[in-house]
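Morning. Coffee machine broken again, so started the prediction first thing and wrote up yesterday's gels while waiting. Chain of 171 residues, entered below exactly as on the submission form.
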Amino acid sequence: MRYISGYVGIANDVSGGHPAQVLFGPATNVKKNAYEPLTSNGIVMFDYPVGAHNMMMCLRQRRTGCMNEAYLARLDMAIAETEAELSDPIFTHTDHPMIILLDRGTTKVDFIGVYKGETIGFPDILGSNFQLNGLEAFTCYRNALEASRQATNTIGEFCPLATFILTKIPG
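Came back before lunch.
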């Protein structure tokens, strides 16, 4: 099991034609920026609120008509790294929201949440892009597990579940 905790910035982005809520952490791939989306930085978060706050200030300064409503949040995740870990009580005996992680390479990952017909989904996977579905995670372990197993069978690689506990920080 892999545990990740830290601070992220979240901004509404309407540039792609579909409103998205993009989660940002520190830049790990793009050195010219101070931040980049969690889905492309290896799910790396800021260790301290001040780092995320500074990133939010940069984001707000560069905010254009396509990116708005930026806010700060704390994110706690527990990621099942093996099929056996899917039966851990952190998933089976909890009401924590859960997402599926779809690995796209060394640091790129798609977050999959509850399927919503009006949002872009993934072919043959029971879920929608988490950032496009309004950050709506699975709330039922059985549904999340079924979607994870179905994604694993479709992709041919293990698609883990992760708890997704997001707490907005006022201000």
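The first strand starts at residue 2 and ends at 13. Going to sketch it on the whiteboard this afternoon.
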